[in-house]
Amino acid sequence: MIEIGKINTLKVISRLGTQVYLGSETSVKVLLVDKKSPQCQVGDALEAFVYVDTEGHLAATSTIPKALVGEIASLKVVSLNYVGAFLDWGLPKDLLVPFGEQHHELEVGKSYLVRL
User: Fold this and answer.
1) At which of 61, 82, 98 does a domain end?
2) Which residues contact 40 (CB under 8 A, 6 or more apart)?
3) Cα–Cα nearest to 5, from 73, 65, 92, 87
4) Cα(109)–Cα(44) distance, rounded to whole angstroms?
5) Cα 84 to Cα 40: distance, rounded to the nearest angstrom
6) Cα–Cα distance for residue pair 39/43, rounded to 1 Å
7) What value does the mean pLDDT take over residues 96-116?
8) Which structural domain, as residue segments, surrounds residue 77?
9) CATH code for the domain of 26
10) DSSP 3-state assignment of 97?
11) Could you report the per-residue pLDDT of 14-50, keeping only the tens digit for each?
């Protein structure tokens, strides 16, 4: 079973050009979204962080974020918009903290302890 927000060991189940799909016998296919396709073959096992992308699909990356689900980390606020604050957690897409989940107003450039 794939655990979202965690590092999973998944098998390469198919390759289509530069696209690599990961999964297991009991899971759905997950696209590896790394910019550089790893040297791997169908059947190889890879460790990947699995998350939900902006379109609601499962995605995987070999990049390990600064914190996993259930962990606490000091993360820096990189931007604010009408939805909330965006924190750098080591992945290409910043982590959103909606205003409704903030205990106090977060400021750009400052770091805060965050539990994922």
Assistant:
1) 61
2) 12, 15, 20, 46
3) 65
4) 41
5) 39
6) 12
7) 95
8) 72-115
9) 2.40.50.330
10) strand
11) 988 888 999 977 778 899 998 777 788 899 999 999 9
